[in-house]
Amino acid sequence: MTIIKIAEIAVTEIRMANVQTEVGRERTATMI
């Protein structure tokens, strides 16, 4: 159970990081 929960948290964190990078790219594109 704990291993599965840790894996789920890791996946959600990676997804959040991907979303943040996408938003950052959009912001940099608008800045340019």
Helical content band:
over 70%
Looking at the structure, what is the overall shape?
rod-shaped
Strand content: under 5%
Distance between the termini: 47 Å
**Average pLDDT, to the nearest integer?**
90
Helix/strand class: mainly alpha
The major pleated sheet works out as: none
Q: Are there runs of 5+ residues with pLDDT below 50, and where?
A: none
Sequence-ordered SSE layout with sheet pairings:
Elements: H1 2-31
Describe the structure.
The chain contains 1 helix and no strands. It is mainly alpha-helical. It has one domain. It starts with a helix and ends with a helix.
Keywords:
1 helix, mainly alpha, 32 residues
How would you summarize what this structure contains?
It contains one helix and no strands. It has one helix at 2-31.
